[in-house]
Give the backbone structure.
Amino acid sequence: MHRRRPPAPPVRPLLWLGIALAGLTLAGCGPVSPSVSADQATGPADGAARDGAAPDAAVTPTPVRVATFNSALERATAGALRAELEAGSAQAQAVAAIVQRVRPDVLVLQEFDYDPAALALFQSAYLNAAQAGGEPIDYPYAWAAPSNTGQPSGVDLDNDGATDGPGDALGFGRHPGHYAFAVLSRYPLQPEALRSFRTLKWRDLPGALLPQTADGPYYSDAALAVLPLSSKNHVDLPVALPGGVVHLLIAHPTPPVFDGPEDRNGRRNHDEIRLWADYLDPSKGQALVDDAGAAGGLPVTESFVILGDYNADPVDGDSYQGAINQLLAHPRVNPAVATGAQVPRSPGAAAQPLAQGAQGEPAHHTAGWGLRVDYALPSLDLVVTGSGVFWPAEGEPGADLVGEAGAPPRPISSDHRLVWVDLLR
């Protein structure tokens, strides 16, 4: 059942919409810094692509496929994912088979527990081995994102009288790093230039939609002193693509459900999405302070792609009204991919019936339960040559990799679908 959310202020066109985004000043495409720890970033020092040839920006523009996939490779106990991958995982094989079919050059892998050894194992034993008739795919650059999920807060955040439950963690999770995300790439990642906002307190976001009850604020002062805005992490990770650097803006906001009338998760989801909207707004970015203590947003001369499962549909579902439209209507986001002719779509989603009372376009859905929640949103200056969602119609090749099976039913691969865009610089 869909809950009605109180309206958020409408997204208004910003005065700086007309600022030209051409003539970009781009950072160099150097290798991963050797000072970055091996458990967070990997990649060959010479910047070689998977086929052994270094990307050459001097030749004809190279199309680059950028994708996000909530893989559902999360497990309820620490180390369980690695143990399953070592033993052999049918679900991981199906996830890898989808990646091998779509073959993105840059992939954000969400709901993959924070365990760099498990990530390396998934690459070597699953992606680098043929799955379901596909061709192996190699990603020489990888980065695993630390996450707030499962990190103890020491405070009763869900007001259940205890301080040690998954709802009391800085982000809901049953162990540190639960539901984390990682990035795999054919092209050099630049974690030495990364900005993250994992420690930014929710209360420090100007105009934060902090939850209220009939008796006053839902959260105590002690809770607000430790509670971050980001339920997992918000990361600006540059990648050196052919033609220049593009910033990967990655997040996975909390689901806007599993709360009460105070709507604490719906409000947090809205504000997690808002963080990127403010980061792209020169008039608001200065209020954002990253984990290194630097303030400010992303300069208007920089290219970006917003990626991740944002747990918010533009029309249907339980999110706070207008939550995802903060990005879809943002003047720096490509409108064709956000709301126009190039919105990623699939024949499999188009064949699904709409839930009763739903109003959205079924072909745009990215989750098995019938909502558009996963996004790959490029900046205006990037040329989009294609987009899609991996969700084959029944009977089409690869259709057996999605859906549910078993008793009780479990996702064959994931309850989400891989979403991709093809870009040119």
In short: Confidence is low (pLDDT under 50) at residues 1-57. The chain has eight helices and 16 strands.
